[in-house]
Amino acid sequence: MPVTKFSTPEKYKYQNGFNSYHESEAIEGALPIGANSPQKPPYGLYAEKLSGTAFTAPRSENLQTWLYRILPAAAHGPFEPQEPTTYSANLENSCQKMHHIPNQLRWDPFDLDETVDWVHSLRLVAGAGDPTMKSGIGIFIFAAGKNMEPREAFYSADGDFLIVPQHGVLDIQTELGHLLVRPNEIAVIPRGIRYRVTLPTGPVRGYILELYQGHFQLPELGPIGSNCLANARDFQAPVAAFNEDTTLTWRLLSKFNGRLFAAKQNHTPFDVVAWHGQYYPFKYDLGRFNTVGSISFDHPDPSIFTVLSAPSDHSGTAIADFVIFPPRWLVAEDTFRPPWYHRNTMSEFMGLIHGDYDAKTGGGFRPAGASLHNVMSAHGPDASTHEKASNADLKPAKAGEGSMAFMFESCLMVGVTEWGLKTCRKMQEGYNSASWEPLKPHFKRPDGAKRDAEVG
Ligand SMILES: O=C(O)Cc1cc(O)ccc1O
Ligand SMILES: [Fe+2]
């Protein structure tokens, strides 16, 4: 059975292409022609620039967008910090000490929580670095059951959100237009873009990687050539859509160094009539990923499954890679087909959207759960997977049918928050011992002799 691909409901319109220069106008003629900020932009709109890179970033990296809107984003009251006892409590964790531990860690599925909305559902579970230094990443779990208030919008000044829904549907109204994001799809909302999340099918749950530095790119394809993996044309950006309200009171929420702030304004933030540029939110259907693998022997590095990569300053070394494990055919001959046992200089945070992950058949890695194998924390198939795979009949076999696991892989050592370690109460006791301690030695000397332990 081929992998399922989503269709687009009629209400939503997208423009296709990764890192493309897009332009969109909800009213014909709203985009100025041949200029960005004419003395009087069309229809009495204000021109506003939103930059995602330094003005002077090289052309190949430069990301910015021009917005043509009814009132500028600056027209709001002062931001006030929100009390931790109210709803910034979840984000608070980012300001707390992280626990850095070499143990292999695994979490049972995180609970749904119907009492909170998107903003108040964000739980920092792990991370590295610091938003104030624009360095590192934050890994969040979200679980919400309420729409954001009708006149509320949110943005993060800390980084780009890579959103991986596991359960339920996210309807995301952004300044640049609407995105509908379902499990097995992902969305990226860049730093600063204001948005409001509603839940058309009820409760939602999933994972977020917040990138405090740089932006996601498509990985290089090297000898693979000019297609495969995630193809650029399958990334979808919204089209301009606006409201006209300039009288009602809105609440603008800002995530700023992991803290929540709120300001009032007397007009909708969703008043962008037209925009053009390369800095915009987008979505991608993981079912469109063109998976490549070994057609001869051996298990290749999981980098062949990279959807998006946020590079560090060192070539080939990512601050964060977003890697998926889609359904795929395994045909390698004379090969131990699951991942090899390994210790990695990168850290690996994994989640499961649905199904089973083929490297862990022992039952403990479940949809909506997670695992963290930190820098040099040894891991690999659990004992039951090893037993099965080393005795399997190696005919072509479909792995991961009906399943989608993913990994946030980072060159940074990842710490775990107090919430992730204790408060969430999902940390599995004995993950390590259940997975790898049952492994038996199979070593046999070539002469068949058994000897006592040798000295030295
Ligand atoms: O640890 C894991 O399960 C992720 C992983 C998968 C794979 O195919 C090779 C290496 C690797 O880290
Ligand atoms: Fe691994």
From TrEMBL:
Positions contributing to homogentisate binding: 357, 379
Is Translocase set as a keyword in this record?
no
Among Gene3D superfamilies, the record links this protein to: Jelly Rolls (2.60.120.10)
Region described as Disordered: spans on this chain: 436-456
User: What cofactor is this protein dependent on?
Assistant: Fe cation
UniProt xrefs under NCBIfam families: hmgA (TIGR01015)
* Name of this chain's protein: homogentisate 1,2-dioxygenase
